[in-house]
Amino acid sequence: MPTPRQVYVAVIGVGGVGKCFLNQFQALRTRMSQARTPTYLDLIFVSRSSKVLFSESFRPLNLDTIEADLNNSKQPILEASALVEYLSTAPEKVILVDNTSSLDIARQYPAFLRKGISIVTPNKKGFSDSFELWEDMFAAASNGTGNGGYLFHESTVGAGLPVLSTLKELVETGDEVTKIEGVFSGTMSFLFNSFMPVGGGGGSFAAEVKKAKDLGYTEPDPRDDLNGLDVARKLTILARLAGLKIQNPTSFPVQSLIPKELESCTSGDDFMARLPEFDDQMERLKQEAASEGKVVRFVGSIDVASQNVKVGLEKFDASHPIAALKGSDNIINFYTKRYGSNPLIIQGAGAGGEVTAMGVTGDVLKVLRSLN
Ligand SMILES: NC(=O)C1=CN([C@@H]2O[C@H](COP(=O)(O)OP(=O)(O)OC[C@H]3O[C@@H](n4cnc5c(N)ncnc54)[C@H](OP(=O)(O)O)[C@@H]3O)[C@@H](O)[C@H]2O)C=CC1
Ligand SMILES: N[C@@H](CC=O)C(=O)O
Ligand code: NA
Predict the structure, then answer these.
(1) Of ligand 2's atoms, which has the minimum distance to the CA of residue 217?
(2) Is 19 a known active-site residue?
C-alpha cells in the first residue's frame, strides 16, 4: 500500500506566467491532497527580480497571501548558486519552477539537477543556448542520461500545446521526423493576423505590438519577439530534440523585423515609443502582398535531412491554413515517415499566461509521476 508523500516546490518569477502558475498550483495542491494516496505539495520558496521569500527551516509559505508576503519581504536576494545549496538541504524532494527568462538562472540547471532537484520551466534561454549546456542538462537529468532531478520544459515551444511531448514520442517510438514547419510565435501570429487579416483591414503595426504586449504574449522585452530570436530559440529546441546538433539560435538565417534605425534603442520602452514612426514600412509590405492576393506571415521551418533551419516572413494565399490562423494561434506541422505527406498538426493558442502556465503545471505533474 503506497504511503502519502510530501514534495516541496520553489518558484522563481511571478510575472504573467508565474502568477497564473501559482493559481493553478493552488488548485493542483488541493486535488493532490485529496487523492487516494495523497501527495502534499508545499511551496517553500518564491522570488522575483528584487524580492525573495523562504524560511530556513522549510516552513510552507501561505499561498493565499503569497503576493503581498513576497512584496513585503526584507530577506536578502539569493544568487542562483546559493539557491542550489539551500534547496539541496531540503528534507523532501524539490521541484524548482523557473518562470523567468533569465539565462543566468538557466545556466545553473545542471547544478540543481545534479543535487536531485527537478526543474520545470517555460524559459527557452538555457535550452537554446550553447549545445554544451544542453548536453550538461540532459547528462544530469534522470529523464536524460543521468540520475539527478527530472527536467521538463513543454512550454518553451507552443506554450501549453503538447508540442515537445509529441515530438519526443515520435522520435522515441522510432518514427523519422523529416520536416517541422509552421507558426511558432503567439506574438507574431497575433500581430500579422490582426495587422494583415485575410480580406483586408487591420490596425497599425505598432498599435498591434502594444496590444500583444498588454495581452501578455510578448517576451518581457518585445524586441526579443520582433527580432525573430524567440522563434529561432524554439526552432533550436525542436531541431535538437529531432536529433540535430544546432549550436545556437543565430547559426541559421533569422529575419528581424526591428527597423535599422531602432537597433540602437537602449530600452524596450524607448523602442515601443518610436515604433509608430515605422508603420509606413509595414503598410507597404501589406499593400505589396495584397496586390498579389496574398498575406504575409512570420514562419519557421526545419528540414531535418539537409539540416536547413530558417525563420522569417513568407507570403501565403488567403486559402492557406497559415493565413487563416486566428488570435495568438500557433500551428506546428510534423512531417514524418509514418505520417507520410499529411503532416501531424498541432494548433491552438501559443502565448498567454494561463495556457503557458498549464504547460508548466502539466510538467509538475510529469515530475510527480516520475518521482518514486
Ligand atoms: N508569456 C507567454 O505567453 C509565454 C512565456 N513563456 C516564457 O515564460 C517566461 C516568463 O514569461 P512572462 O511571465 O510573460 O514574463 P514576465 O516578464 O511577466 O515575468 C517574469 C518574472 O520573472 C522575474 N525575474 C526576472 N529575472 C529574474 C531573476 N533573475 N530572479 C528572479 N526573478 C526574476 C520577474 O521579476 P519582477 O516581477 O520583479 O519583474 C517576473 O516576476 C519567459 O521565459 C517566457 O519566454 C513561454 C511561453 C509563452
Ligand atoms: N513571446 C512568446 C511567448 C511564448 O513563447 C510568443 O509570443 O510566442
Ligand atoms: Na508546448
Answers:
(1) 7
(2) no
Residue 189 CB less than 6 A away from ligand 1: no
Q: Would you call 6 helix, strand, or coil by DSSP?
A: strand
Number of domains in the chain: 2
- Asked if 129 and 208 sit in the same domain, the reply is no
Rounded Cα gap, residues 102 and 107, in angstroms: 9
| Statement to judge: residues 292 and 152 lie in one domain | no
* Distance from the alpha carbon of residue 346 to the mean position of ligand 3, in angstroms: 10
Judge if 263 and 337 occupy the same domain. yes
Pairing of strands 93-98, 5-12: parallel
Task: Give ipTM to 2 decimals.
Answer: 0.99
Task: Indicate if 218 and 254 belong to the same structural domain.
Answer: yes
* 201 grid coordinates: 483591414
Q: Which domain holds residue 94?
A: 5-159+355-370
Q: Is 231 in the pocket of ligand 1 (CB under 6 A)?
A: no
269 shares a domain with 185: yes
| pLDDT tens by residue, the chain, 372 residues | 679 999 999 999 999 999 999 999 999 999 999 999 999 999 999 999 999 999 999 999 999 999 999 999 999 999 999 999 999 999 999 999 999 999 999 999 999 999 999 999 999 999 999 999 999 999 999 999 999 999 999 999 999 999 999 999 999 999 999 999 999 999 999 999 999 999 999 999 999 999 999 999 999 899 999 999 999 999 999 999 999 999 999 999 999 999 999 999 999 999 999 999 999 999 999 999 999 999 999 999 999 999 999 999 999 999 999 999 999 999 999 999 999 999 999 999 999 999 999 999 999 999 999 997
Q: State the closest ligand 1 atom to the C-alpha of 156, by its place in the atom list counted from 1.
A: 46
Q: State the catalytic residue, choosing from 213, 234, 294, 310.
A: 234
Distance from the Cα of residue 215 to its chain's centroid: 16
